[in-house]
Amino acid sequence: MIELNPNVYVDADSCPVKEEIVDLCDKYDVMPHFVTAYAHAPSGEKRGTWHLVDNRGEEVDYFILNRSKRKDIVITQDHALGSLLTGKGVYVLTPRGMVISEGNAEELLFRRHERMQLAKKQIRVKGPRKFTEQDRTTFISTFEEILSNHEGISRPF
User: Fold this and answer.
1) In sequence order, what are the residues at sequence separation of 6 or more whose Cβ sits closer than 8 angstroms to the Cβ of residue 76?
2) In this structure, which of 49, 76, 114, 129 has its CB flanked by the most CB atoms within 10 Å?
3) DSSP helix/strand/coil, 94
């Protein structure tokens, strides 16, 4: 059987838009796959499919990288993972609504490299700004656009 709907994988360790992901996936009849380390596993009722991996570094990234395929959708804050996935033909989106593509992946990796070099020199590097409601709105809009334009997804009524 050919699977038309894409998989939606979420790097869920610190994802601030889990509920929005589930709501939009429900609307488009797509199952989200949340991937997280045991240390970050949520308690209580969980919507979507949850995959728990070891707490070792990068296990979530390896899980997503090894299972995603062309035209799947991945939501991650990890620009390095996103850059690798774009080469596989995967749609990559950050929780702030930024699309990582082959066109901007190299620049994102270069900026990451610069921050790491400054950190090695013990030069204080400012972290990301606080997540805002505008970020949430941008994410919802961008994710819905990707879902609504995806060729394998049935349209909501």
Assistant:
1) 10, 11, 64, 82, 92, 94
2) 76
3) coil
Distance from C-alpha of 1 to C-alpha of 35, rounded to nearest angstrom: 25
Tokens standing for 76? 């991650």
Are 29 and 5 a contacting pair, CB within 8 Å?
A: yes
Where is 50: in which H helix or E strand? strand 49-53
User: What would you report as the CA-atom Rg of the chain, rounded to the nearest whole angstrom?
Assistant: 16
CA dist., res. 101 & res. 145, Å (int): 15
Task: Write down the residue that tokens 């038309």 correspond to.
Answer: 4
∠ CA 37-15-65, rounded to 5°: 60
Q: What is the pLDDT of residues 7-45, one digit of tens each?
A: 999 999 889 999 999 999 999 999 999 999 988 777 776
